[in-house]
Amino acid sequence: MRVLILSDSHGNAKLLNEIVRRVKADQVIHCGDFCTDQADLPKVPMTVVRGNCDWERVPQEQVWERGGLRIFVTHGHKYQVKSTPLPMRYRTEEVGARIGCFGHSHFPFCEEVGGVLLINPGSISYPRGFPHATYAILEKTREKLKVTYYKTDGTAITERGYEGIWG
């Protein structure tokens, strides 16, 4: 299974659609601040949440589940993600998920915290504290999980990511 995770596109629907077309994922997760009309979002299986800059009426939190994955998705602005991963970890556990995806900080982050994998794909439009605009791809095989970060042109970023046994 292949899941495209992105966030903070801030109105750049053209780039968002281009990345989604190129990656061809089984599921797309957008962690908020898409800042465009919902009609301009890609027409693919997609979980989307509302960020602090969004006006469309989409949920602030969602749980997506398939193929042995249970992923909590939120923007992160209500969970202090710019200062600590702990509130995100606790909320992810609270909803019974082992993976939490969020945005808001525009900074790519992927770390296992107390048995919960937290993923911030960064921003595809306005990176902060990192030299490249980024997105992440989560790939799950029978017992392995891998998260790889990419620049918006599709070039892999080797200094970020995760690989481990998952089951």
Automatic annotation (TrEMBL):
**SUPFAM superfamilies of this UniProt entry?**
Metallo-dependent phosphatases (SSF56300)
* Cofactor(s) this protein requires: a divalent metal cation
Judging by the UniProt lineage, the source's domain of life is Bacteria
Keywords in alphabetical order: Metal-binding
CDD domains documented for this protein: MPP_YfcE (cd00841)
Ranges of residues in domain Calcineurin-like phosphoesterase? 1-139
Instruction: List the signal peptide residues.
Output: none
- EC numbers for this chain: 3.1.4.-
Q: What class of enzyme is it?
A: hydrolase
Q: Which PANTHER family match?
A: VACUOLAR SORTING PROTEIN VPS29 (PTHR11124)
Q: Which family does it belong to?
A: Belongs to the metallophosphoesterase superfamily. YfcE family.
Q: Which NCBIfam families match?
A: yfcE
Q: What is the protein's given name?
A: Phosphoesterase
The species is: Laceyella putida
